[in-house]
Amino acid sequence: MATIDFALEGSINREGPTETAARFGDRAAWTELIARHNRRVMLSLLAQGILPAYAKEIVQEAWLRLITQADAKKLDRLELPGLAIRQAMFLARSDARKAGHFTVSLDDAPEGNTDSGEQAYLSRERLLKARERLNDFSPSARAIFEQLYGDPHLSHAEVAAQVGLSVQRVRQIICEVRKVLRSELEGGSHASPRR
Amino acid sequence: MRHLGADVVEQYVMGALDVESSRFVESHVTQCPECAALLQNEAQVEVALHEVAALKKVVLLSSRRRRMTALVASAAVALAAGLVLVVSIDRGPSLQNRPVLRQCTEASTARDCISQAQFDGVITIGPDREPIVPRYELVSAQGAVP
Questions:
Q1: Is B30 on the interface with A (CB under 8 A)?
Q2: Cis omega (within 30 of 0) on the bond before B93?
Q3: Cystine design at A170: which of A160, B59, B99, B118 (Cβ 3.0–4.6 Å)?
Q4: Of B15, B16, B54, which is closest to A11 when you measure between CB atoms?
Q5: Residues B88-105 pLDDT 10s
Q6: ipTM topping 0.90
């Protein structure tokens, strides 16, 4: 998984009405946005080898800084989760340089889209292949995947309610999808999924 | 120390564990480098899956943009073809044998020469050596240049 990076992060983020409201100081909008994107920001830090307890602190600090910047009218746009991820990564890197808190060095992590063209190409190729493999699944499995991982992503319980399945069944389906896509992302092959 | 199961770590990054189990995972990985590495790997998969989901929208946006570009290009080609057809019909003779550039550098005859060139739909070089491009929109229904 080393070649999967953050090259595409935030690539399709757009500022919606909630983001605009938050940028103009609406605290309820901020609460909604944090609830929506917090896990995604957290995952980005975990993917860099930051331990969960410390990652939570960094994510909180990242949100606080964004709110402060918005209050000071320093944010021209609020595109999430990309901006929150970049802020959290900046804080993590900054802390790592100061104290070396982490089990994994962040020095090699891409600052933005600074990875080599070849690496970005490989990553994109794998993402595209994984995307193609998704077509091997049934429409309902694809819909569950889109709702769980798309933007805005829903919780397992919300998806279960929408598709009329139990939470347990939704998790079984997504685990199967995840297994196949994971194999594709890691450059391997996997048997075709059951339809 | 017993290691965490891969399925437990997978469920943790998917947000499928209850609070107590999540705390156990978080506590365990602080003391177990192997499980911390497993957690990192699972988180990378999870991030990549979000990218896969986002990719569809990017690809869709691109294909939509490509379709729009193709539509605009087709419209432009059709418009150009229409103009050529109008000029061709209005002028009678085929465009194929016409010169595409006409020299109207002689001051005494330049005005008539340029007028005729505009009417014929060819690029003209005027007395000042500057090219004059035909103004198709000025061609009236009768084919005369106003």
A1: yes
A2: no
A3: A160
A4: B54
A5: 555 544 445 556 677 888
A6: no
